[in-house]
Amino acid sequence: MLGPWGNIKLGSPDEEPDLSYAGYLVMIFTAGLSSGGLEYWGPVEPLVHYQTAPPFFGSNVGTWAGMTNALQYAIFHYGTSAWSVYLVFGIAVSYFAYRKDMPFRPAVILAPFVGTDNVDGWLGKTVDTLAVVVSVSGITISFGLGVNQFLAGLSYNWGVHVGTLGEVLFILLITVVFLLSVTAGIQEGIQRFANLNVIVLLVLMAVALVFGPMSFLLNVGTQAIKGYMTDFVGMSLYFTPAATSWYGSWTVFFWAWWLTFAPMVGVFMARISRGRTLRQLVFAGMLGSFALTVPWYVATGGSALWLQTTGQADLLGVYSEVGLAGVSFALFDQLLPFANLFSAILLLLVLSFLITTLDSATFSFSMIANKGEPSPSTLNRITWGIVLAALTIALSLAGGISVLRSFTVLAGIPAAGLCLIALVGMIIQLERHAPVLLEETDDMDDKMISSVRSRLPNRITEQQPTDD
Fold first, then answer.
1. Spatial separation of the C-alpha atoms in residues 314 and 319, rounded to whole Å
2. Record's superkingdom (predicted)?
3. What is the CA radius of gyration of the chain?
4. 459 CB neighbour count, 10 Å cutoff
């Protein structure tokens, strides 16, 4: 981001961005954060980690360290690891779409290895198909979690219980709404829901901070962020066979989920990045989005820990009786005045997350199915929306999220392979554009440089801006 690669313009030198930078940041943030994400896990995940300490920290249940470590691990699961995975695809598709005039397809990650003219063969089609399959699994989980949380909120706050038929009808209603949005286009439809999403998120976050234990939140939040920065490498690499079940339920699941999202989010990132530089893309996807994620976890997760440890609310009891989806509503019910009002606003947040997630997913799948066309047909968008709704209904009738969670972990394996190909390929391609890793210095032997360069695909040559 700080080197010469960050200056690469996505488009012609005088290309103007389609969106303001604030709008661009909002769109990337809402595309990358799935429904069933922040609003679902924010309050409950730190509580669960506090109750059963993550193996990395050992047994510190019931202590101050246990609280900060619990919040730290929740931030870790939704932190820079997820966004860096998205950016691997986002950078690759953006570069080849705007610098090499290639379509918006995951298959472009093959270009550094097979050339830009050979991506349309069977290998490219295989990559596109695999990318869609793994992304659909992740999106379907998000759709299911969002529906589950919305209905749990109706039940917890107002005693409204719907059966299987009601759940199916709600899925169909959401489908109609997000199809109206996605067919209206990026600026007229998708961006408006994305803006609503962030506004509601900021309102609820501010209210939680104001009415919550401010000094406690600042203290535990600061310690958690500090721990995240110092322990990041250790948490990323630590594993013990004795904790296989814990990692499978948390870190492995989350990382597999992010990996399945990467092709879809990467294609959408590329679609809205015209006129930006790679530095702006990385900043929006990494630092900008992370800066919105952390305060939400501190405000909601920290408040949940405070209510639980001070005995003012038994949120873990709600978790045991109602499940994950009900904890957010129990938190706002106990923490805030006018509980029903803010619970209704939380329902609006769940809805807006659902719609923006499905908007970006449907648009991305439509582009891929339409051979990378940046403005896929309305029929194509509607078709993909119906496919996602049908899969979510089938999931609901089959018995819930657990089956698809297992499939998503498996789907994360080929998704990781695609991300690795994209990462290596982009390092090669960017090195061709502006040599950094193999930049000649006085203490490097010419023969050494030539030897290393000759081993890279399509031998790296001197930068020629007029040709690139």
1. 9
2. Archaea
3. 23
4. 10
